[in-house]
Design brief:
With about 170 residues, this protein is α+β, with helices and mostly antiparallel strands. The chain has one domain (about 5-165). It has four helices and eight strands, in the order βββαββββαααβ. The protein has helices spanning about 60-65, 120-125, 135-155, 160-165; strands at about 5-15, 20-25, 30-35, 70, 75-85, 95-100, 105-115, 165. Strands 4-3-2-1-7-6-5-8 form an eight-stranded mixed beta sheet. β1 and β2 (about 20-25) form a beta hairpin. The longest helix has 23 residues, at about 135-155. The radius of gyration is 16 Å and the shape is globular. The protein starts with a strand and ends with a strand. Residues about 40-50 have low confidence and may be disordered.
Length: about 170
């Protein structure tokens, strides 16, 4: 079976001391965190089939870029997707935590933070209502997290998918 692109999550942030920006390309064989240069134009692409930004270049070529991090889906041993705080500085953030075994046999942890894109939020709020704005925004966040969950469950090994923590 050939490797296929499933979806793209734009503007994923990793790193506490020195935050770095990535696009997360989800394929049937691996998760590829594609490093972005600060200040570059940010295309808003989302979901299954909308990976046009990286469609031309092969997956092996994308994974071998110097700023890329590639994690084989079969090497993932634990996963948690969590919608963070309802208020405060973490409002709206979605956390993706992975534990995987690298090629050299070492266990590694990774945490990535993401926010729904403005276009995604607009697509989920049909008629903006100022009195219900927080409720509508929360609905869009939950839908964003569910879309990420759906893409991940398509590609994860069954044992990881069943034991994953989905805190949505």
């Amino acid at each position: 079976m050939s490797e296929k692109r499933v979806g793209l999550i734009p503007d994923v942030t990793m790193g506490l001391l020195v935050p770095r920006l990535y696009d997360l390309l989800i394929s049937t064989e691996r998760l590829i965190f594609l490093g972005k240069k600060p200040g570059k134009d940010r295309e808003v692409v989302w979901g299954p089939g909308s990976v046009a930004k990286y469609e031309v270049e092969g997956l092996d070529s994308l994974a071998s870029r110097s700023r890329s991090i590639s994690v084989a889906n079969t090497s993932i041993v634990r996963l948690r997707l969590e919608l963070l705080a309802k208020r405060g500085p973490e409002f709206g953030l979605i956390s993706l935590r992975l534990r995987y075994v690298s090629k050299d046999g070492k266990a590694s942890n990774m945490e990535a933070m993401m926010n729904p894109t403005l276009d995604f939020i607009r697509s989920k709020i049909s008629k903006p209502d100022r009195s219900r704005m927080a409720e509508q925004f929360r609905y869009a966040q939950v839908e964003y997290a569910k879309t990420i969950k759906d893409m991940l469950t398509q590609v994860l090994p069954p044992n990881v998918s069943q034991t994953a923590e989905w805190r949505i």
